[in-house]
Amino acid sequence: MTQVTPHYVKPSQLRIGLYIYLDLGWMDHPFPVSSFEIRNQDQINKLCGLGLDQIRYSPEKSTPEPNRIESELSDYQVRPLPQIVVALSATQMREQQLGLQQASFLRCERLFSQSLQDYKRIAENLHSAPEHACELAKAAVHQLLDGILQEDEAAIRLLSEKNGEKSALHAVNVTLISLLLGKALELPKEEMAELGLGAMLHDMGKLDLPERQRWLDEYSSPAERQLYQSHVVHGVSMARKMALSHSATLLIAQHHEFADGSGFPSQVMNEKMTGLSRIISVVNRFDNLCNPGHAGVALTPHEALSQLFTKYKAQSDTRTLTAFIKMMGIYPPGSVVQLSDERYAMVVSVNSAKPMKPRVIIHDHKIAPDDAVIFNLEDDAQIGIRRSLKPLQLPKSAYDFLTPRHRLSYFYEPTSLHA
After folding, report:
1. pLDDT of 70 strictly over 60
2. Which of 84, 175, 275, 367 would you call most buried, defined as having the most Cβ atoms within 10 angstroms of its Cβ?
3. Phi then psi for 184, rounded to 5 degrees?
4. What angle do CA 313, 314, 317 make, to 5 degrees?
């Protein structure tokens, strides 16, 4: 039998295109597989961070000039690395990753909670001090914009379920996603501020309705539907008392209008809707599909996005809907999926610049859910998403590990935290 001589490379000599092998246990490194072709600089940085003196590679499977690689490495003396050092370094790196992702998650949770409190204060002042409520809303939107506009790219992040008032959760979701979509559409800052203000206040006309009348379902009577639809007129009346701009007031007036004229209350068509209204019309419907009044009829984010593109395509502005789908990815945060290697996962974050390669938490029965490291599908070309699932299609062990959300909340985080 011919003996195969192993080939090794120093971490400093790693490059894109090398096919490498990690002679470590799966838990001792952050990659989903132990052998792969290096695709990007992020993978090189993570490999260097393992603290290894040498990494085995295959000249035959590597794409960048294997002969030149062999020449450069011909005088390299291989020295075995004690396994105890490898394990310690990998463990430290995993702990560091967990620490970074937990810090990022807590930052998002804190800022989201602050936005919920801001909305509560706005609602408390709507009738007694409408102009003060307007100033509070502007301050809340500017705080969001300060973060969103400073980041070159922002990942849309799934948060834990909140025990908050549904109206506040919906308002913050719609505001955050609308602002991210506005940024993707390259709106000027002035329009972004108007978009955020109108989105934050778009449903304030509901606050005078009984809680059970703030959401429609298939069992709603014609009278209940008429009462529900009246919230738009109430919202416009409040906007005038708050002395909102014409642009923000129009956004409130048109957030239930659709491109084909089938919306309410005025049945205006796409050409009569403002650009900002087209944005909130799409985002508002998406969040209502994912977070309806009755959780039993909630769609998964993947299903909601699919319905927007099929069932409701004619009701949406084409440019806005296309940008929204591109930003959210085919599998938005909160989607439960099965990967190409048969493992189950939940999408927790999507980078709008790379929407087909979201970040996921993968079910692993060997570890506790709190110890799961978020994996970026962009880091491995061999692993992708095979299909989307409903949460109840998951095996019990995977369901308990991934804990799919009944109500979805979103925020943003800088993509630099995922490097």
Report:
1. no
2. 175
3. -65, -30
4. 80
pLDDT tens, 77-104?
A: 445 545 544 445 667 777 777 888 888 8
Distance separating alpha carbons of residues 297 and 300, to the nearest angstrom: 10
What percentage of residues in the chain have a pLDDT greater than 90?
A: 53
- Of 203, 264, 205, the closest CA to residue 234 belongs to 205
Sorted by sequence, the CB contacts under 8 Å of residue 31 that are 6+ apart come out as: 22, 43, 46, 379, 380
Using CA atoms, how far apart are residues 173 and 142, in angstroms rounded to an integer? 16
- Rg, Å, the chain Cα set: 25
Q: Are 344 and 319 in contact (CB under 8 A)?
A: no
| 98-329+408-418 CATH | 1.10.3210.10
Better pLDDT: 2 or 343: 343
Indicate the burial class of 230 (C-beta count within 10 angstroms; 0-12, 13-18, 19 or more).
middle
The packing angle between helices 189-201 and 130-148, to 10°, is: 130
* Pairwise CA distance, residues 349 & 359, whole Å: 5
Residue 131 pLDDT class (50, 70, 90 cuts) = very high
For 70, 78, 302, the CA distances from 75, given in Å and listed in that order, are 9, 9, 53
Tokens of 397: 């062990």
Tell me the domain boundaries of the chain. Answer: 7-81, 98-329+408-418
Beta-strand runs (E) in 278-358: 336-339, 344-351
pLDDT at 139 over 60: yes
Tens digit of each residue's pLDDT (9 = 90 or more) over 163-216: 667 889 999 999 999 999 999 999 998 999 999 999 999 999 999 888 778 877
CB proximity list for 195: less than 8 A, separation 6 or greater: 178, 179, 182, 187, 251, 276, 279, 280
Beta strands 336-339 and 35-37 are unpaired
Report the distance separating Cα 391 and Cα 334, nearest Å: 10
Q: For residues 298 and 291, is the Cβ–Cβ distance under 8 A? A: yes
Give the whole-angstrom CA distance, residue 319 versus residue 321: 6
pLDDT for position 415: 64
Coil vs helix vs strand at 370: helix
Q: Are the C-beta atoms of 379 and 364 separated by less than 8 Å?
A: no
pLDDT of residue 357: 85
Residues 254-302 have pLDDT tens digits of: 999 999 999 999 999 999 999 999 999 999 999 999 999 887 788 999 9
